[in-house]
């Protein structure tokens, strides 16, 4: 996928997470004390991670899984503990270094490979499943669906991803962010309606044969995100 809007957005996200936000994300990955707002985000992300993992088999032995937008590696670690061979991809090299350096001792050698790069690159090979937690929420819906189609070409079973559901609060935050940009602000989240993204997935020719299955929202404090699973029958 080489659309200009995707490329431009990808560049903005890489700059933010590898320069502005890297220390904050390292704190999210530890038990370090956080302020009230960030604490609810950390807890909300943990709930979402558990929800996404529940969409996949408990035993992933023999599966190769892509953790697309892996951040500090929390999802990759849980996938590896289920027996999967995991490739964790993130745009931010500094966050990837942190993920590789902080792997827990119970993760076997070679079980997880972390790389800095584009999650859609064909060079990553094929997978049995893909998880993409909060890694598509900064893209316009058309670009997000095209990204899913790109991943689907190289995925055998399932893609579990999240999007920002359109709620009154998120709509206001999105509008405010666009009206009042600031150099250290995260790239704005793009809220979408669940029925709209499900419709666009169904109408995307390259996702023919894939079906939208389980979807569920996590709303906890300042964290709101919605999971959706698409899978081959």
Secondary structure topology:
Elements: H1 4-20, H2 22-28, H3 36-53, E1 64-68, H4 74-81, E2 85-90, H5 93-101, E3 112-116, E4 127-132, H6 141-152, E5 155-163, H7 168-179, H8 194-203, E6 211-220, E7 223-231
Parallel strand pairs: 1-2, 1-4, 2-3, 4-5
Antiparallel strand pairs: 5-7, 6-7
Quick structural gist:
The chain is an alpha/beta fold and 233 residues long. Helices cover 40% and strands 21% of the residues.
Number of domains: 1
What do the pLDDT scores average to?
A: 88
Figure out the total of helices: 8
N to C succession of SSEs: HHHEHEHEEHEHHEE
Give a count of the beta strands, DSSP E runs of length 2 or more. Answer: 7
Q: Look at the structure and give the CATH class.
A: Alpha Beta
Low-pLDDT segments? 176-184
What structural class do you assign from the helix and strand content? alpha/beta
Strand line-up of the largest beta sheet: 3-2-1-4-5-7-6
Task: Calculate the terminal CA-CA distance, rounded to whole Å.
Answer: 25 Å
Name of the CATH architecture: 3-Layer(aba) Sandwich
Shape: globular
Relevant CATH superfamily? Vaccinia Virus protein VP39
The fraction of residues assigned to DSSP E strands is: 15-25%
Q: Within the CATH hierarchy, at the fold level, what is the topology?
A: Rossmann fold
Determine Rg (CA atoms, Å): 17 Å
Biggest sheet: strands, sense, closure?
7 strands, mixed
Q: Specify the helix fraction band.
A: 25-40%
InterPro entries: Mg_prot_MeTrfase (IPR010251), Mg_prot_MeTrfase_C (IPR010940), SAM-dependent_MTases_sf (IPR029063)
Keywords: Methyltransferase, S-adenosyl-L-methionine, Transferase
EC number: 2.1.1.11
Pfam families: Mg-por_mtran_C (PF07109)
């Amino acid at each position: 996928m080489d659309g200009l809007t995707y490329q431009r957005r990808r560049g903005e996200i890489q700059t933010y997470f590898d320069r502005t936000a890297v220390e904050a994300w390292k704190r999210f990955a530890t038990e370090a004390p956080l302020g009230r707002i960030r604490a609810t985000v950390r807890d909300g992300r943990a709930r979402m991670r558990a929800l996404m993992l529940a969409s996949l088999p408990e035993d992933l032995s023999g599966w190769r899984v892509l953790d697309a937008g892996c951040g500090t590696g929390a999802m990759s670690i849980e996938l590896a503990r289920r027996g999967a061979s995991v490739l964790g991809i993130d745009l931010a090299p500094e966050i990837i270094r942190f993920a590789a350096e902080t792997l827990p001792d119970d993760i076997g050698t070679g079980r997880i490979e972390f790389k800095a790069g584009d999650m859609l690159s064909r060079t990553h090979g094929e997978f049995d499943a893909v998880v993409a937690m909060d890694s598509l929420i900064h893209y316009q819906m058309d670009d997000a669906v095209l990204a899913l189609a790109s991943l689907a070409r190289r995925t055998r079973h399932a893609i579990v991803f999240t999007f920002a559901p359109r709620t009154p609060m998120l709509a206001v935050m999105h509008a405010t962010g666009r009206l009042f940009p600031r150099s250290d602000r995260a790239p704005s989240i793009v809220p979408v309606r669940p029925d709209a993204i499900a419709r666009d997935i169904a109408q995307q020719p390259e996702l023919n044969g894939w079906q939208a299955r389980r979807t569920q929202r996590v709303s906890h404090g300042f964290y709101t995100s919605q999971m959706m699973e698409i899978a081959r029958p």
